[in-house]
From TrEMBL:
It comes from Lentzea alba. Residues 1-20 are annotated as: Disordered. This is NCS1 family nucleobase:cation symporter-1. It is a multi-pass membrane protein. Coiled coil: none annotated. The lineage of its organism: Bacteria, Bacillati, Actinomycetota, Actinomycetes, Pseudonocardiales. The chain crosses the membrane at residues 39-61, 68-87, 163-183, 190-211, 231-252, 272-294, 314-335, 356-374, 386-405, 434-454, 460-476.
Length: 481
């Protein structure tokens, strides 16, 4: 049972220290999201070009179809359980992820997880915007073939991106900023539309390919079965880890969304529908469409935008590519825009509003020139994998603190006070145990990424970091008591 104390009548009550408070970070006065809104959130997260390629890649690991489906269900089941764990503290207290982290890291120490998560989101925000702009380019080149020279980086290029790419990137950058700027209610309506829209296109695309190839051409094993018996177990474990890793970002800061849930039961229902049920259906649709590209187009195509581009109808190409573009915008806003908005606002609430935090992330996403980051596997590997190794430890500390150390008891008012007598003041606003546990987990998690001899464990960095940080923080906190 969480001790919520007295909720403030307004977001900026005098009792709350201004160094820790603004209207965006304070506890919500009304929580209105139902199960469908959470379901739609996950649909927006899954139904993107990245989600399509990730789901399809599971069926190309050399496993049989039933093994892939089993690994998929186990992986997404783990994600569902962990999302429920992250959801509860924010839903009950009505505060976002960086604020609930104050209970474990300290009222000032919470900036450590906030900045780490914010930086990861900025990098992925730029990459997803670039991927969406590539889908938009498909539409523009289909409608206006004369633009082809401007899509050539050798003829009209700047900082590694052609002029057409700059135009598409700028348009989508502005569209996302505009949707975000209008506030959380508009974002809710936007993601309520995005996920279902992709399902419509996916079912139509599947129907078109079945019409061209026939029902008998469907094959859930789109790669040769190379792993059988005990040899298949490590591959299945790797597939499970891949699913968890794909969702690790939004899973960590899911509290930014669960805080809007009208009840914890509604959030859990939304997670059930949006994760195992939705992801399984979407994955089956992905593998069906992917397998049918071979008999229809003569080659296996794993990119949904490229598949749509092969359709005979210009209208279908435009509609399909635009839908995947919109869906990618949806996941970008929910996974990589809202998170840094809260995270950066938490650093200096009176100077950085939620909107200002989001715009800092948006500007940062351009400065890193994400097209160069995405096109260099070495850079993206060592940058995002090293940062990603911190996600597991941050998750481990949050869960250990709320469930194992505090037994689900949080005093909301103390999350917003700089008084040394506050429960979450620790040492000058920082909890050394949480920071030490995060560092220990991150160091051990990042070793497989940096040390070639340990490369086989690189896919399990999230689990390593989470387990180490959870154990270290729990033991340190209980021994101190």
């Amino acid at each position: 049972m969480t001790e919520t104390a007295a909720r403030p009548a307004t977001a900026t009550t005098p009792e709350y220290d201004p160094r820790l408070t603004n209207e965006d970070l304070a506890p919500l006065k009304k929580q209105t999201w139902g199960s469908y809104n959470i379901f739609a959130f996950w649909m927006s997260d899954v139904h993107s070009v990245g989600g399509y390629v990730t789901a399809g890649s599971l069926f190309m690991l050399g496993l049989s179809s039933w093994q892939v489906l089993l690994a998929l269900l186990v992986g997404i089941g783990i994600v569902q359980v962990f999302c429920n764990l992250v959801a509860k503290p924010s839903q009950v207290t009505g505060v976002p992820y960086p604020v609930i982290c104050r209970a474990s890291f300290g009222v000032l120490g919470a900036n450590v997880p906030a900045i780490i998560r914010g930086l990861i989101a900025v990098a992925w925000y730029g990459i997803q915007t670039y991927l969406a702009s590539a889908a938009l380019n498909v539409v523009l080149l289909k409608l206006f073939p004369a633009l082809m020279p401007y899509a050539d980086v050798q003829q009209y290029g700047f900082l590694g991106l052609p002029l057409l790419g700059w135009g598409s990137f700028a348009v989508l950058w502005l569209v996302q900023a505009a949707v975000f700027w209008t506030g959380m209610e508009t974002i809710r309506r936007f993601i309520d539309f995005c996920g279902p829209a992709v399902y419509v296109v996916m079912f139509v695309l599947t129907g078109y390919l079945i019409y061209r190839a026939g029902w008998g051409a469907i094959d859930l094993s789109i790669s040769e079965v190379r792993h059988t018996g005990l040899a298949s177990i490590p591959v299945m474990l790797g597939a499970i880890a891949l699913v968890v890793s794909y969702f690790s970002g939004p899973m960590l800061n899911f509290g930014d969304f669960s805080r809007y849930g009208r009840s914890f039961a509604a959030v859990k229902r939304g997670n059930l529908l949006g994760l195992p049920v939705n992801f399984l259906l979407f994955s089956v649709l992905v593998v069906v469409t992917t397998s049918l590209t071979l008999p229809v187009f003569g080659e296996l195509i794993t990119d949904p935008v490229e598949t749509v581009a092969r359709v005979d109808s210009t209208f279908a190409i435009v509609l399909g590519a635009l839908t995947f573009t919109i869906a990618t915008i949806g996941i970008n806003i929910v996974a990589n825009f809202i998170s840094p908005a809260f995270d950066f606002s938490n650093v200096s609430p009176q100077k950085i509003s939620w909107r200002a935090g989001g715009m800092i992330a948006a500007v940062g996403s351009v400065l890193i020139t994400p097209w160069n980051l995405y096109n260099s596997p070495e850079v993206i590997h060592y940058t995002l994998e090293v940062l990603g190794a911190f996600i597991g430890p941050l998750f481990g500390v949050l869960i250990a603190d709320y469930y194992l150390v505090r037994k689900q008891k949080v005093v909301v008012d103390d999350l917003f006070t700089m008084s040394p007598s506050g429960r979450y003041h620790y040492r000058k606003g920082y909890n050394p145990k949480a920071i030490a546990a995060t560092a220990a987990g991150a160091v051990l998690a990042v070793l497989p990424v940096l040390v070639p001899a340990l490369a086989g464990a690189a896919q399990y960095t999230w689990f390593i970091g989470m387990a180490v940080a959870l154990a270290v923080y729990t033991l340190a906190s209980r021994s101190a008591r």
